[in-house]
Description:
The complex is a heterodimer. Chain A is an alpha+beta fold. Chain A is built from 17 helices and 13 strands. A 6-stranded mixed sheet of chain A has the order 1-2-3-9-6-4. A 3-stranded antiparallel sheet of chain A has the order 5-13-10. In chain A, strands 7-8 form a two-stranded antiparallel sheet. Chain B is 17% helix and 21% strand. Chain B has helices at residues 24-30, 55-58, 66-72; strands spanning 2-7, 13-18, 50-53, 83-85, 98-101. In chain B, a hairpin with a 5-residue loop joins strand 1 and strand 2 (13-18). Chain B starts with a strand and ends in a 6-residue tail after the last strand. The mean pLDDT of chain B is 93. The A-B interface holds A 102, 106, 109-110, 113-116, 118, 342, 344-345, 349-353, 355-357, 359-360, 363 and B 29, 32, 38-41, 43, 45-48, 66-67, 70-71, 73-76, 107.
Amino acid sequence: MSGTATEQAIGRPAPVLSVDPYADEVLLEPFAMHDELRRAGPVAYLERYGVYAMGRHRDIQPALKDWETFSSTGGSGIADIRKPDAWRPASPIVEVDPPRHTKVRTALQRILSPAVIRQWREEFEREADRLVDELVETGTFDGVNDLAETYVAKTFPDALGLEWTPQRRENLFLLGELNFDGQGPRNARFEETQRRADLINDWYTNSMKRDAMVPGGFGEKIFKAADAGEIEPEIAPLLVRSFLRGGLDTTTSSISAALYHLAGNPAQFALLRADPTKARAALEEAMRLETPIQTVGRLTMRDVVVDGTLIPADNKVIMVLASANRDPDYWDRANEYDLTRSTLGHLALGNGIHMCIGQMIARLEGESVLKAVAARVSELSLDGEPTRKINNNLRSHKTMPLRVKAA
Amino acid sequence: MARIVFVQPDEQVVEVDGRIGDTVMHTAVANQVQGIVAECGGSMACATCHVYVDDDWLGRLSPLSPGEGDMLDATASGRRENSRLACQIELTEHLDGLRLTIPDMQL
């Protein structure tokens, strides 16, 4: 019947879910929500926020590649930043699509090319070895504060070329917190973070300026790319801003998660000890299970039917990367930490043209730390219950007491 | 199906069959061909699926895009005239028998 055919072409309406992905208990333990979302089908409508959501790997991966349908121009979070009530300027890299995106991405890709990052390796490894040596000496330490955060808060802003000040570390983590709370709804959690961030606004504004960049860092290279006409001069500080806001918490979360899984799985830690080249696998698998950036927002540029379900044009869609990364239809033993599995296809860094531009720095940092731990620690275990931070979109540990035996 | 012949840096030869429409990178990773790292999963952001294309086949590939050219400037093993990224080579019937050499280093 033609009526049926038409209906099929149009697609079913999405099932409506009442779950609140931003409730404290869901952010702490999101797995039941992921399960509900995947069971609802390819797409669900979150009535509380008036947005669509996708949770299955098979739907999210192609959607991330299809920027013409699932655009980033409506913002990386839940709000449609083009609308008057939520308007804010878009990030010139994360929240634009081709052709504007291509020019900026190309320039940044050149600045952060594999060849450039290889030159940093020695220094990043030296710093990881130094820090892990120091911590192993103490026998017990906090995996988040003492190791992951201390390491990332030194290496990343140094590579960017942001001058050290006593407030640098604390301020950068606050900016990250604000960035990722801001990708969720304007709830009390966001408002509270915004209030604290308002106090460092002068520091923040100055830190993205050209004269804040120490010569030799990649921040300076961004401004030089503007001098060379590769990017518009006014977007150079905004690109630096993106690194200030997005470069620390994500990597810290991945490293902390790797330490957590290795501490809880002696057999997996033994695999890493036996073959330190598995440090990369140890990091990737932690990224998959943790998925620091839990979701990314897209905007439908047309009516689109995803596996039979309709999302009308001009709607925000929340792609729940964390759900795709544990989707049992895609992953064998989805919840198990396994250094021997192929993690190709994990979506923790996104996919397609907007895939994390800093991914090679993140991998260098994570690999350096995990290699240093594998070489210097013979036994790694939890020395108490870890705790979690609660953020609207960034999943990470807050504390992680670790006990180590020197190798 | 299209057969792809990978020559490892030690000259060992690995042959795999790929589906038409898949990329060489995906086919290699699916068949666990050593030396195709493909960290970014085909987003042209990591230059770790670098291959040297056998001269007989070079002219049959689709031309290099500017983005791919930029990434090839940053590979771990030196770029040559016949360097390509395996994630940018889509298999067609015409590529049945494609012969590629894997470089010494990808990272």
